[in-house]
Amino acid sequence: EDGDGDVAALTDVEVRPWATPYAVSVFGHPIMAPDPFGRGRAYGDGRALSLGVVVTPTGERWELQLKGAGTTPFSRHGDGRAVLRSSVREFLVSEAMHHLRVPTTRALSLVASGSEFIRRLWYAPGDRGREHPPNTVVNERCAITCRAAPSFLRVGHLELHARRAARAEPGALAELETLVRYAIKRDFSQIDAALPLREQLLEMVRIFGTRQVDLAVSWLRVGYVQGNMNSDNCLLNGRTMDYGPFGFVERYDELWSPFTSDMERKFGFERQPLAAQVNLMTLARALVPLFDREGGGLDDLQRIVQDDYLALLDAQMGEMRRQKLGLGAWDKEASETLWPQLQQLLQRSAVDYTIFWRQLAQVSSAAAADAVVQGDVGAEGLLELLQPAFYSAAELKPHLDGWRKWLRLYALRTHADGRPDGERRAEMRLASPKYVPREWMLVSAYSAAQDGDYSQLDELAELFRTPYDEHPELEAKYYRRTPDEMRQAGGVSYFS
User: Fold this and answer.
1) What average pLDDT does the segment 118-146 reach?
2) Which domain of life is it from (predicted)?
């Protein structure tokens, strides 16, 4: 924040001597399009330019990347620009995710143009109803975000070179090995470089699998949906990146996604751990040519990708759910009774995901004891605590008996655990944020910013620095269900 010099360094049209801007190709899915290299499959960073890697005084390495700085060799027919709407979303949410304790890229700066506007397809004001792609051309302010990560190496980069090796292109296998060794040095520095390459590759896949589990479980803990989890935006360092068709679950739906292009809900909320495993499989598949050359190891590779991943996922999902419920242990009763019954009620009762967990953390040991002793009467008191989370009395009504039954079961378990009230509730609050970047909050912030008013952006940025705190002064404004006028609204509940 020491002024215009820092901003100019990140936004100036002149290329500074310390920066060598470059864009990179990734595999993703082969897309036939003109490209400057004559391969006919131009797919890569269409509006992202890496400036280089900086080293902090503490020795940390951060790669800086501009998003929206103009065309790259992979822009195809696009202009390489970003608009303020998408830039505000990424700036606020990537920083919020950091403070939510979710692995993520960071936002270093956001600069809006005072004079440049560009036409983009989006949704008309008041556009509501069934999900559909953008259908209106709007004039939007241009912006550039600078994001940072230890590296932006992705699974898709290795996939690209593996595809070339599979076609037996001259030198392709050597290029794949060079890139893999560089990726290990950059993103897997804990691996001993003196080990045989086969052992390094196995350890690389094992670590990446752990990172994918950590990431997917963190997303489910806070209610985040990435929207698009292809290999082209899956970082080897295990961080969330490329905030595009993302969203936070408001009314709970186990397969919810705001991304209209994902009609099959392959990347829906509760399916994200599976999608993360697919990216692990993709990485492993990209390394197979090197295993073949090294003389085996595919059985070990398969075990890591399938058995080890699922075992770790099961353990971490259980621990995450234990914390959110405030239980003393994750056991058979929790996994086979408490959790399945709760998930069914959440799915059927029109419940706000974030508010539900925070309200559940208000259940005291005394209230739980009352529910144990008094039955339905005591359970009714617990149900009253959850009322702020329910969207519709009509949709809740058929399931009231189910909620009373579950709350009695939960009260019995809480009472039997005998955990100190303060300890249990504090753990629950640390597992379940009170404030997340709901899309209607972001819409309000970027709409005001479009007119030069950044006060809401500043307010949200400050709020998201401490998303687990109570903030009573902002509770009425932000600790609330989706406003009626925003439900099923294009560009809020869904987008592309």
Assistant:
1) 90
2) Eukaryota
pLDDT per residue as tens digits for the range 198-212: 999 999 999 999 999
Residue 460: exposed, middle, or buried by beta-carbon count in 10 A (0-12, 13-18, 19+)?
Answer: buried
Q: List the end-to-end C-alpha distance of the chain, in Å, as a whole number.
A: 34
Q: Region 243-271: what's the mean pLDDT? A: 95
pTM higher than 0.90, yes or no? yes
Estimate the crossing angle of helix 400-417 against helix 339-348, to 10 degrees: 150
Residue that the structure tokens 């996939």 belong to = 159
Strand-pairing partners, residue 171, are: none
Of the candidates 311, 265, 243, the one whose C-alpha atom is nearest the C-alpha of residue 48 is 243
The yes-or-no verdict on residue 18 having pLDDT over 80 is: no
Q: What is the DSSP letter of 133?
A: -
One DSSP character per residue, 229-275 reads: --GGG-BTT--B---SS-EE-SB--TT---BTT-TT-TT-GGGHHHH
Q: Are 105 and 147 in contact (CB under 8 A)?
A: yes
**In whole angstroms, what is the distance from residue 151 CA to residue 164 CA?**
23
Closest C-alpha among 186, 173, 192, 168 to residue 237: 186
8: DSSP letter: H
Residue bearing the bigger pLDDT, 9 or 368:
368
Please state, in angstroms and as integers, the Cα–Cα distance from residue 159 to each residue in 48, 88, 172, 213, following that order. 19, 31, 12, 21
CA-closest candidate to residue 425, choices 359, 479, 333, 341: 359
Query: Is the pLDDT at 11 greater than 70, yes or no?
Result: no
State the residue for tokens 């086969």: 198
Domains and CATH numbers, the chain: 4-111+143-149 (3.30.200), 155-321 (no CATH), 326-431 (no CATH)
- Asked if 241 and 477 count as a contact pair (C-beta separation under 8 A), the reply is no
CA distances from 222 to 75, 143, 217, 277, 433 (A): 33, 28, 9, 20, 7
Q: Is residue 38 packed enough to be buried (19+ CB in 10 Å), middle (13-18) or exposed (0-12)?
A: exposed
CA–CA separation, 283 vs 212, rounded Å? 11
